[in-house]
């Protein structure tokens, strides 16, 4: 009997009660499978979190001491996880690369130097393809950290430090396909990456260097990354006549001018709005001090560009002077934030 599907691709309920019951049972089975997989993962991660002890710190000690890269390796599903861990390490300030254990036996061992440390992933700890890497590390005196569920395995015995995975059932109905164990490996790899990041004191500025594009990079841009430098700033003295101030504002195209006191500090700002509010026959004969808005909003070069955007939105302004010790050293305009994809 042909099954009719709805627009979402689901079987339409049939007038045949048996067919309807079968479709309902299949969907209930889908939900049960998803809940079982996620439940196993949640229980395993809770057990993993509870198992963290001094062995974790010992592994971090080994990895942070490496003068070169962290070489991450694994076979099969563990290899896919190892690639992800290597990418996470590299993006959080720890130089890392993935080496395939089978390819290592055919020349890629040359990628591993005595300045490196190796992080080897194997749930059983007896992955045959890993043996050449283990032997190479022992011969060359290269530090080795194992991530495994088998404390008495060959991998664990060969390692300088061991990241242990607690025993947990796979979510596969046959208990064979790596599911729960690979979830724990990913999570433990993330824990290693963040611990190393904190040990190394990776700042937001350094993190931005590794993420120059995309949403992460935009969120970590600083005002200093976007601001116009001091030589481009529209600045006038507090006693300057408004004729000079209007000329300076027109020349710089920012729609404003900073007003400096006699010590060179920013005393006020004159915007296009200030000109309109003071428009009259005597305005051009006035001094900058007579027209300026005193104590303007300012920001530091180290502040995130997102903070500058928030400041502009909160006070309905389009430009903010950047100051250091009260003196203007830059200016960021709303158009700069638009170009950077922040606004």
Structural account:
This protein has 15 helices and 13 strands. It is α/β, with parallel strands linked by helices and 343 residues long. The protein folds into 2 domains: 34-202, Rossmann fold; 223-339, CBS-domain, CATH 3.10.580.10. The strands form 3 sheets. It has a 5-stranded parallel sheet, sandwiched between helices. Helix 3 packs parallel to helix 7 (180-200).
Distance between the termini: 56 Å
Task: Look up the CATH topology of the largest domain.
Answer: Rossmann fold
CATH homology-level superfamily of the largest domain? Glucose-6-phosphate isomerase like protein, domain 1
Total number of helical segments? 15
From the 3D coordinates, which CATH architecture of the largest domain would you assign?
A: 3-Layer(aba) Sandwich
Q: Kindly report the average pLDDT value.
A: 90
Main sheet specs:
5 strands, parallel
Helix content: 40-55%
Q: In terms of per-residue confidence, which ranges show pLDDT below 50 for 5 or more consecutive residues?
A: none
Entry keywords:
15 helices, CBS-domain, 343 residues, alpha/beta, Rossmann fold, four-stranded mixed sheet, 2 domains
Please describe the topology of this protein.
Elements: H1 17-51, H2 54-64, E1 70-74, H3 77-91, E2 96-98, H4 101-104, E3 117-121, H5 131-140, E4 143-148, H6 154-158, E5 161-164, H7 180-200, H8 204-210, H9 214-220, H10 223-226, E6 228-229, E7 235-237, H11 242-252, E8 256-260, E9 266-271, H12 272-277, H13 288-291, E10 293-294, E11 298-299, H14 305-315, E12 319-324, E13 327-333, H15 334-339
Parallel strand pairs: 1-2, 1-3, 3-4, 4-5, 7-8, 11-12
Antiparallel strand pairs: 6-13, 8-9, 9-10, 12-13
